[in-house]
C-alpha cells in the first residue's frame, strides 16, 4: 500500500532525520519527499509518499509522538504497484 | 553565573539531589559546578554503570534519574543504558558534554554525533545551541522524561555553552491539563466486562509507571477478575491476591498461560503485547475480545487489534470500571489451576536448587526489600519464585534484557532508598559485565547485598543450545571464571561460597545481617533449566516443562 502523508512540525536541525528514522525503523519506504521550512525557519512542512505492507496507522501514531510534530495527516492511499517495491 | 552553574541550579529546581556520572574533558565545567553546587554526585566506574544506576534510582522511587557523561566515549558508553530505559519506559535525563560549538563537525578530539546516536534510544534528545536555549531545554527534558509514557531524554551541551554566561530563564508553570474520560468508552467497557464469562487482567509495567497501583488493586477488589502480569508488571498486584496467577509468557506460570488461552475478555492494562508475553501472536488469547488501556496511543492495535482502547491516565479510568460481576466458575477454575500448577520445590540431592533458594530468600528478607536482577536464568527464577508487593521493589531489565544491569541498578536503588534492603541477584556471566561497579559500592560503602548464582555457564543461552541447537555449547562455558569471593574482597566486600542445601539458611542470614555489602556466591549445577518454557514460535499453552 502506498500512502500520501503531510507532517507539520516545529523545526529543529535534526527533525528531518528523526522523522525519516522512524519511517524506516517502523517498516516503511519513502517514494517521494518534499521538505520545506516556513515561518522564518520556525516550522517544517513535509509531504511524502511511503509504501509498506504494514498498516499506515502504525507509522502515523509513531510520528505523532515525536516531540515537535504538531500534525500528521493521511491524504490518500492506493494499492502499490509491486514493481517498484 | 555560567551555563554549567545554571545546569546545577536547574537540577536543584527539579528536586534532583543525586546524580550519577563520570567526568571528562567536555563536561569539566559541569563537574566544576558540581564540586560545591549542592547536588550529590556518585562517581560510577563506567558510564554504563552511571546510567544504569540512574535507572535503578528512578525505578526504585518513581522519580527521574539523572546521569552525566563527557563527550565521545563517555556518551557512547551511555547508549546501552538509554536503550534499556527506552524499552522499559524509565524516566532518565542524561546530560552529556559536547566539544565546543565551533569544533562540532570538525572531527575534533572526542567529538561524536551524540544527537544522531541518541535518536533510536531516547524519547527525545536535545543539543543546546545557545545560552538562551539552556533553561527551556532542561525544563522540557524533565517534563518529557516523566510525562505520558516516561522515557530517557538526552541533553548534549557544548563546552562553550557550559563556560559562557547563562541566560536567565523563568520557568512557566503550566496548568495541569485535566483530561476528559470518554464516557461512551467507559460504558462500552462496563458492558463488555459485565458480559464476559471469563475475563482476565493482563497487567504490565504501565500501572506502576502511572502510579495507579491503588486504583488497580481497588478495581481487582471489586471485580474479583483473575489476573496475570508481565515481567515489568510484577509487584503491581499483591502476590497473594486470590485470583492472581503470576507472570505470563515465555517463562510464565502454567496457570497464567492457560488462563490467557482460555479467557473470553482480556483487559490489557499498561502492557504492550511483547513477543515474550504473547508467544505465537495469532494464537494468543484466541477466544478473547480485548480492552487495551495504555497511555501510549501507538501501542493500541500495534500487535493485537483490539475491540476497545482508552489512552487516558489509568488513575482516572480504573475507578470508573469498577463493577461487580458474577464469574464464580471462572474464579473457581483460576483457584484450581493455581493449586494444580503450583511451583514445586522438592528437588533431589544435596546440590542447591536456585528456585528454592530464592523462595527462601523471599521469605527471610525484610519488608520492602528491593531486588535488582541481571539477565538470564536467575532473572527468570527471581520472577517466578520470589514475591514482591510493589513494582519499585522488583527492578529487572525487561524489554532490552541487558546483562550487567543488576549491580549498577542496585547501586542506584540503594542510594535512593538507603533505609531499605537492596539485593542484587546476578549470574556469573552478567556479574562480570559491570563488575567495575563494585568500586562504586566500595567508594560509597553502600551496603548492597549480592547473591551471585554461579552455574559456570551463560546459563540461559546454554539452555537454548541444549534445547534448540543440539547441545552444541558454543562459547557458553565459563569454567574459567575468576574466584568471585577473592574478587569481591579486593573491593572490601566480604563474602562466602556455598554449594549445598544445608548451608543455605545460615548463609542467607549472614547475607541479610551483614552490616555492609556482602557477596553470597552460590554454586549450582550447570544442568538446571528454567521451566516452563514456551518455545519460540509456539502458542502459550504449548509449554515445555522438562527435557523429556
Ligand atoms: C549485554 C548482553 N549480551 C548478551 C546477552 C544474551 N544473553 C542473555 S542471557 C545470557 C546468559 C546470562 O548468563 P548469566 O549471567 O551467567 O546468567 P544465567 O543465565 O546463567 O543465570 C546471555 C549471554 C544479553 N542479554 N545481554
Automatic annotation (TrEMBL), chain A:
Q: Where are the transmembrane segments?
A: none
Domain named ACT is located at 4-77
Q: Which Gene3D superfamilies match?
A: 3.30.70.260
Organism superkingdom: Bacteria
> Which InterPro entries does its entry note?
ACT-like_dom_sf, ACT_dom
Which protein are we looking at? Answer: Acetolactate synthase
Supply the source organism for this entry: Psychromonas marina
From TrEMBL, chain B:
| Entry keyword Magnesium | yes
* Pathway in which the depicted protein is active: Amino-acid biosynthesis; L-valine biosynthesis; L-valine from pyruvate: step 1/4; Amino-acid biosynthesis; L-isoleucine biosynthesis; L-isoleucine from 2-oxobutanoate: step 1/4
Q: What is its EC number?
A: 2.2.1.6
Q: Where is the Thiamine pyrophosphate enzyme TPP-binding domain?
A: 374-522
Question: Per UniProt, which keywords does this protein have?
Answer: Amino-acid biosynthesis, Branched-chain amino acid biosynthesis, Magnesium, Metal-binding, Thiamine pyrophosphate, Transferase
Q: Where is the Thiamine pyrophosphate enzyme central domain?
A: 186-319
Report if keyword Transferase is assigned. yes
**Catalysed reaction, written as an equation:** 2 pyruvate + H(+) = (2S)-2-acetolactate + CO2
Q: Which Pfam families match?
A: TPP_enzyme_C (PF02775), TPP_enzyme_M (PF00205), TPP_enzyme_N (PF02776)
Q: Sorted alphabetically, which InterPro entries does this protein's record hold?
A: Acetolactate_synth_lsu, AHAS_TPP, DHS-like_NAD/FAD-binding_dom, THDP-binding, Thiamin_PyroP_enz_cen_dom, Thiamin_PyroP_enz_TPP-bd_dom, TPP-bd_CS, TPP_enz
Q: Which free-text remark accompanies the cofactor?
A: Binds 1 Mg(2+) ion per subunit. Binds 1 thiamine pyrophosphate per subunit.
Thiamine pyrophosphate enzyme N-terminal TPP-binding domain: residues covered = 1-115
Q: Which PROSITE patterns match?
A: TPP_ENZYMES
Q: Provide the top EC class.
A: transferase
Q: Which cofactor does it need?
A: Mg(2+); thiamine diphosphate
User: Belongs to which family?
Assistant: Belongs to the TPP enzyme family.
**Name under which the protein is recorded:** Acetolactate synthase
Species this protein is from: Psychromonas marina
Amino acid at each position: 500500500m502506498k500512502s500520501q502523508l503531510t507532517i507539520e512540525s516545529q523545526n529543529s536541525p535534526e527533525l528531518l532525520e528523526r522523522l525519516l528514522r522512524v519511517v524506516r525503523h517502523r517498516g516503511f519506504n519513502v517514494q517521494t519527499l518534499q521538505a520545506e521550512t516556513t515561518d522564518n525557519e520556525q516550522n517544517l512542512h513535509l509531504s511524502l509518499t511511503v509504501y509498506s505492507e504494514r498498516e499506515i496507522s502504525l507509522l502515523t501514531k509513531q510520528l505523532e509522538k515525536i516531540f515537535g510534530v504538531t500534525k500528521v495527516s493521511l491524504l490518500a492511499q492506493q494499492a502499490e504497484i509491486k514493481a517498484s517495491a | 553565573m555560567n551555563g554549567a552553574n545554571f545546569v546545577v541550579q536547574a537540577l536543584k529546581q527539579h528536586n534532583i539531589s543525586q546524580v550519577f556520572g563520570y567526568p571528562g574533558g567536555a563536561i569539566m565545567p559541569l563537574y566544576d559546578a558540581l564540586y560545591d553546587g549542592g547536588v550529590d554526585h556518585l562517581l560510577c566506574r563506567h558510564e554504563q554503570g552511571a546510567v544504569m544506576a540512574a535507572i535503578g534510582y528512578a525505578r526504585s522511587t518513581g522519580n527521574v534519574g539523572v546521569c552525566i557523561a563527557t563527550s565521545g566515549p563517555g556518551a557512547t558508553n551511555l547508549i546501552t543504558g538509554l536503550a534499556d530505559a527506552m524499552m522499559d519506559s524509565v524516566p532518565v535525563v542524561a546530560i552529556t558534554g559536547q566539544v565546543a560549538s565551533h569544533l562540532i563537525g570538525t572531527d575534533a578530539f572526542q567529538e561524536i554525533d551524540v544527537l544522531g546516536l541518541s535518536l533510536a534510544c531516547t524519547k527525545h534528545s536535545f543539543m543546546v545551541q545557545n545560552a538562551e536555549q539552556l533553561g527551556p531545554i532542561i525544563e522540557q527534558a524533565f517534563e518529557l522524561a516523566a510525562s505520558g509514557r516516561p522515557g530517557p531524554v538526552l541533553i548534549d551541551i557544548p563546552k562553550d555553552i557550559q563556560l559562557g554566561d547563562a541566560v536567565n530563564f523563568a520557568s512557566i508553570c503550566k496548568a495541569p491539563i485535566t483530561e476528559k474520560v470518554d464516557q461512551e468508552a467507559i460504558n462500552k467497557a462496563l458492558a463488555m466486562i459485565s458480559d464476559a464469562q471469563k475475563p482476565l487482567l493482563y497487567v504490565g509495567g504501565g500501572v506502576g509507571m502511572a502510579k495507579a497501583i491503588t486504583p488497580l488493586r481497588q478495581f481487582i477488589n471489586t471485580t474479583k477478575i483473575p489476573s496475570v502480569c508481565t515481567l515489568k508488571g510484577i509487584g503491581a498486584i499483591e502476590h497473594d491476591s486470590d485470583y492472581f496467577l503470576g507472570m505470563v509468557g515465555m517463562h510464565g506460570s502454567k496457570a497464567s498461560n492457560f488462563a490467557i488461552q482460555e479467557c473470553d475478555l482480556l483487559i490489557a492494562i499498561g502492557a504492550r503485547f511483547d513477543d515474550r508475553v504473547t508467544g505465537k501472536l495469532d494464537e494468543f488469547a484466541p477466544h478473547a475480545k480485548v480492552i487495551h488501556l495504555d497511555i501510549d496511543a501507538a501501542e493500541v492495535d500495534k500487535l493485537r487489534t483490539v475491540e476497545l482502547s482508552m489512552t487516558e491516565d489509568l488513575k482516572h479510568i480504573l475507578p470508573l470500571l469498577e463493577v461487580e460481576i458474577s464469574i464464580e466458575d471462572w474464579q473457581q477454575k483460576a483457584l484450581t489451576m493455581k493449586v494444580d500448577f503450583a511451583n514445586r520445590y522438592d528437588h533431589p540431592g544435596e546440590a542447591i536448587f536456585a528456585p528454592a533458594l530464592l523462595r527462601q530468600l523471599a521469605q527471610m528478607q525484610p519488608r520492602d526489600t528491593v531486588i535488582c536482577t541481571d539477565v538470564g536464568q536467575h532473572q527468570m527464577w527471581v520472577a517466578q519464585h520470589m514475591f514482591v508487593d510493589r513494582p519499585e521493589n522488583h527492578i529487572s531489565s525487561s524489554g532490552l534484557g541487558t546483562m550487567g544491569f543488576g549491580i549498577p541498578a542496585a547501586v542506584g536503588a540503594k542510594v535512593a532508598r538507603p533505609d531499605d534492603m537492596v539485593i542484587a541477584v546476578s549470574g556469573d556471566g552478567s556479574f562480570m559485565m559491570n563488575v567495575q561497579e563494585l568500586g562504586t559500592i566500595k567508594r560509597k560503602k553502600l551496603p548492597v547485598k549480592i547473591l551471585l548464582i554461579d552455574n559456570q555457564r551463560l546459563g540461559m543461552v546454554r539452555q537454548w543450545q541444549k534445547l534448540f541447537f543440539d547441545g552444541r555449547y558454543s562459547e557458553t562455558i565459563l569454567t574459567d571464571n575468576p574466584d568471585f569471593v577473592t574478587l569481591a574482597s579486593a573491593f572490601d566486600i566480604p563474602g562466602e561460597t556455598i554449594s549445598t542445601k544445608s548451608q543455605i539458611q545460615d548463609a542467607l542470614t549472614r547475607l541479610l545481617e551483614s552490616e555492609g555489602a556482602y557477596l553470597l556466591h552460590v554454586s549450582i549445577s550447570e544442568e538446571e533449566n528454567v521451566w516452563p518454557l514456551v518455545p519460540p514460535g509456539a502458542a502459550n499453552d504449548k509449554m515445555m516443562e522438562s527435557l523429556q
